[in-house]
Structure formats: C-alpha cells, structure tokens
Write a structure and sequence with these properties.
The protein is mainly α. It is 59% helix and 0% strand. The protein has helices at 14-27, 32-35, 41-56, 64-77. It is globular and about 40 Å long. The mean pLDDT is 93.
C-alpha cells in the first residue's frame, strides 16, 4: 500500500488552513481526498474550485441530485468509495 505524506487539519496553516476550514463548513470534515493534496495548497485550491463549479454551478443543465447520482455511479463502477 502506498503512503502519501499529508498535513493534518490540526497542523495546517495559511492557505491550507483556509481550505480545510472551508471543507469543514461544506462537509463537516476534511476528507482524505483533500488531505492527499495538502503539500500543494495551491493545487488543492484549484481542485476544490473545479469540484465546486462542476457539482454546484447553477449554470449546469443537470440538477445537483443528477450530478451527485452520476458521480456515485462512476465511483462505484471504478471501485472508488468516494
């Protein structure tokens, strides 16, 4: 099993602390999929902004429920628990 160095929410500072705090507000926790990007906070910021745009944009012709369903099906087909 691979090991990836991460910065825990308790040790986060600066931009990473801000991003973790936003995650806590959105989801109530900081998921590992975010923490694996913690050594590159600017990359995490861009990744998070892309996710929010794709999943929550009011400009999408799909409802939020439809987007969540698509994400769930794709994750399941790929054997990913996220």
């Amino acid at each position: 099993m691979a090991f990836i160095d991460t910065i825990s929410p308790e040790r986060a500072t600066g931009l990473l602390r801000k991003l973790y705090d936003q995650s806590l507000q959105r989801a109530g926790r900081v998921f590992q999929v975010l923490q694996i990007q913690s050594l590159r906070p600017h990359t995490l910021d861009a990744s998070t902004r892309l996710y929010v745009e794709v999943m929550r944009s009011p400009r999408s012709p799909l409802s939020r429920a439809q987007r969540e369903l698509i994400a769930t099906v794709v994750s399941r087909e790929n054997g990913c628990h996220y």
